[in-house]
Amino acid sequence: MCVFAVHNFLKDPPFGKMDLISCRNVLIYFEPYLQKKALTTFHYVLNPDGFLLLGKSETTSGVPDLFSEVAKSDKIYSRKDVPSKFVQVVNRRSELDFNKIEESKKPEKKDPDFQSKADEIMLKKYTPAGVVVNEVMDIVQYRGKTGPYLEQTSGKPSHNLITLAAQGLAFELRNILHKAKQENAEAKKENIPVKINGDLLTITIEAIPIPNTIEPYFLVLFHDTSSKGNKQKSEADVAKTKKSSDNKKDQRIKQLEQELVDTREDMRNITEDQEVAIEELQSANEELMSGSEELQSLNEELETSKEELQSTNEELVVLNQEMSSLNEQIEAERNYSESIVANIREPLLVLDKNLRIRTANNAFYKQFKLNEKETVGALVYDLGNKMWDFPELRKLFEEVIPKNPIIVDYEVIQSFPDIGELHLLLNAREVVKDDESENLILLSLEDITEQVKEREKRREIQERHTRELNEKIEARTAELKSANEELKKTNEELISMNKELEAFTYISSHDLQEPLRKIQTFAGRILEKEDQNLSEKGKTYFSLMQNAAERMQKLIDDLLAFSRLNTTERKFERVNLKTIADEVKANLSDKIKEQQATVDVGEMCEADVIVFQFRQLIHNLVSNAIKFTKPGAKPHVRIKSRIVKGTKLKVKDLNPEKEYCHISVSDKGIGFEEKYSEKIFEVFQKLHSKDVYPGTGIGLATVKKIVHHHNGIINAKSAINKGSTFDIYIPLYDKKIDEKPKSSTPRTANR
What we know:
The protein is α+β, with helices and mostly antiparallel strands. Among the domains are: 1-108, 3-Layer(aba) Sandwich (Rossmann fold); 344-447, Beta-Lactamase, CATH 3.30.450.20; 448-546; 568-748, Histidine kinase-like ATPase, C-terminal domain (Heat Shock Protein 90, 2-Layer Sandwich). Helix content is 48%, strand content 20%. It contains 17 helices and 22 strands. It has helices at residues 32-45, 92-105, 114-126, 161-164, 170-183, 235-343, 362-368, 372-375, 383-386, 391-403, 449-529, 536-567, 577-587, 589-595, 611-627, 699-709, 735-738, and strands at 18-23, 46-54, 67-71, 76-79, 129-133, 139-143, 187-196, 199-209, 218-224, 348-351, 357-360, 406-416, 420-431, 440-447, 571-576, 598-601, 606-610, 636-645, 659-667, 713-718, 724-731, 747-748. A 5-stranded antiparallel sheet has the order 6-5-9-8-7. Strands 11-10-14-13-12 form a 5-stranded antiparallel sheet, sandwiched between helices. Strand 3 and strand 4 form a beta hairpin. Helix 11 (449-529) packs antiparallel against helix 12 (536-567). It is flat and about 170 Å long.
């Protein structure tokens, strides 16, 4: 049962016999007095071992004797089985009025016990004044006349003993109560001077713990120890008093000295207590900070949990929708599957575990001339007057399917009445349900009779074609044999021609160059020694003759270098290309200095190259870059290389699975039109006249041939007056060299 009602638990009568009270984030807005009242009420109404649930910032520390902690982090407390201290709370005014009414109604009673009355009078007259205070020094009961020692100050009313103490007593009261609380024993302080109503009195204070109470309580007694003689003294007493004045002074001095010692001891105790209190405060502060962090963390966790719960709810909604959608899809798929089975062109059977037919499609009935009535529920072997009871089918169901639940292309041959002999291709699959309540066998039958006939025809045609092909192969073999003999003869002729070419090369390098050298030599001598006897035209002719001889010499040298590329043995070495570039730069130093050129050699990689050929390649490209420069301009050539993967290169004819060394030679010369980027690599091809830019037209052809020998490619990019760039790509390493330790040992190979 759940009851909803407006209830003021501080004023209204409480409910009773409750197992659980949840009062969260309410007590934090109450003063300590009201908090204690509320917790006392909760203790009163809870059953033994009942539970109290408070807010994160609330606690039962005000009444530690009434509740025990169950879960600190969750603020769950259990009721202690101790007597309840519940007092019905009513407003002050009604309480006072009620008391007055009750007192007025009570008749005066006469007590016949004179002894108890006498004891009461004695206690009132001779018992020292005192008060009963609780743990926090609030007065809960006054005993006797405490007026001389306690006085109410102006301002808000207070019941605190220290606040009400007369001048000079607060310090002593705090110390003696602190001592009694710590030692849980009677504490006493004597001969305390205090000025009351203008008179200097000496009092003694006692603090006595009251035993066997739920909460700690202390009885504080005030003893007036001042001497009270008769104010009217005789002359003898006066004389006697004068004689003892000196002794009283000494006693007063001793008393003050003792008070000083006591004060020092009190100060030391107070200092120690303060240090302990400071440490406890620091510890409490750390705990509070930790608790604050935990609260923050818990708050974040709650926010996260809330978001997760919301997300889970959304997921559940989505899952519900998905389940509905899946059910609809399953229903649609079932209808779809039934439609497929009914309309599939191949015969199809569904059998149960006893090999009885559960269903069959229209194609089965049509193919084997059966109907649904005699098929569904029948044993598969009994179909068509037991025409389906043949050994191959029994073997399939009894031996093959139990071992292999999926059968593909199981071929059988069987004759059927009114149909004839059929070649059937069976495909079977055992459908196992999760609960294994009923396993089914899906059996499809494909009539491949016509295919078998076609296969036989193809086999016969293939045999005939094979015979014809063998005859052609024999004839072709004879032709190849004849061609091999001719090729052998051609190879011998090529060997002879190579020897003649070598002889021609020798003649070109010696016999043809000898007359040219003499022409150059004699022309130079005539110009040098017969300079005065020659006319200007004669000098011009001799200069032209000398230049023509030099060009012829250069042409022969280039032709010899070009021809040697095919005849010289190719030795591949793994070298750093920077070494070759630096050598070429050193060889061309005179030309570089003459043209005031700049040749920058950047970072270069290692590669397997034919060293002398690659030196020739760099030499030709750098020479051309220096030569083909605008008049008056200073040539600038840059050489660099890097390793790249074939997959990152968008260059035709490169293998993407290999790594390549990309060499780039660029200049800022006169350039050329892009349409000549292929033509410039042909032999004797020149884009400029010999008078403007002299040359043989063989240098770039030599470069391309060298790149070809390295299984690489070369591309040229240029524009008029914007310089040229030659990009060379050669395979990085040879696999045979990679298998050996790195060294500069040369290797001979024909690439």
